[in-house]
Amino acid sequence: MNIKEKFGLKVKSLREEKGISIEHLANISNVDRNYISDIEKGKRNVSIEIMEKIIIALDFDLTTFFNDKIFKK
Amino acid sequence: MNIKEKFGLKVKSLREEKGISIEHLANISNVDRNYISDIEKGKRNVSIEIMEKIIIALDFDLTTFFNDKIFKK
């Protein structure tokens, strides 16, 4: 799995845990819903600014978001 | 401080801790040295792929890199 896929998988998993739709996440993060959909599929080489917007919208910070075995060596 | 500046500061701080030059980091990460210089100044909205390349070149993983109070809420 590459880093784009890992990031997408984590976003999707946290979004589903929170029980919110892609559309809702799009609204609260101010990121286009098609873009979020592509991110979750691992298709987007997301920038650090977009990354932060999404992570904050999910009520996380970067430290907690990346504290997951999929991001470890 | 915005996220681009926080990321740049952390890269610079780890690079200096390791005692390596921007040029050396550029070589081992395969990222252009001017680009790394701009990143350290907080001027670049770096992509997740470039981010990962630099973090790996610094001998870190994303979990450890982002485990810093500057990335916490």
Word description of this protein:
- Chains A, B: One of its GO terms (molecular function) is DNA binding.
- The structure is a homodimer of 73-residue chains.
- Chain A has 73 residues and is mostly helical.
- Chain A has one domain (3-71): 434 Repressor (Amino-terminal Domain) (Orthogonal Bundle), CATH 1.10.260.
- Chain A is built from 5 helices and no strands.
- Chain A has helices at residues 3-17, 22-29, 33-40, 48-57, 62-65.
- The model of chain A has no long low-confidence stretch (mean pLDDT 98).
- The A-B interface holds A 3-4, 7, 45-49, 51-52, 61-68, 71-73 and B 3-4, 7, 45-49, 51-52, 61-68, 71-73.
Largest interface: A-B, 21 and 21 residues
Shape of chain A: globular
Helical percentage of chain A: 55-70%
- What is the CATH superfamily label of chain A? lambda repressor-like DNA-binding domains
Instruction: Predict the CATH topology of chain A.
Output: 434 Repressor (Amino-terminal Domain)
Instruction: Give the domain tally of chain A.
Output: 1
**Radius of gyration of chain A over all CA atoms, rounded:** 11 Å
* Residue windows where pLDDT falls under 50 for at least 5 positions of chain A: none
How much of the residues of chain A is beta strand, in percent? under 5%
DSSP summary: helix tally of chain A: 5
Highest-level CATH class of chain A: Mainly Alpha
Furnish the topology, listing elements before pairings.
The structure is a homodimer of 73-residue chains.
Chain A: H1 3-17, H2 22-29, H3 33-40, H4 48-57, H5 62-65
Helix pairs in contact in A: 2-4
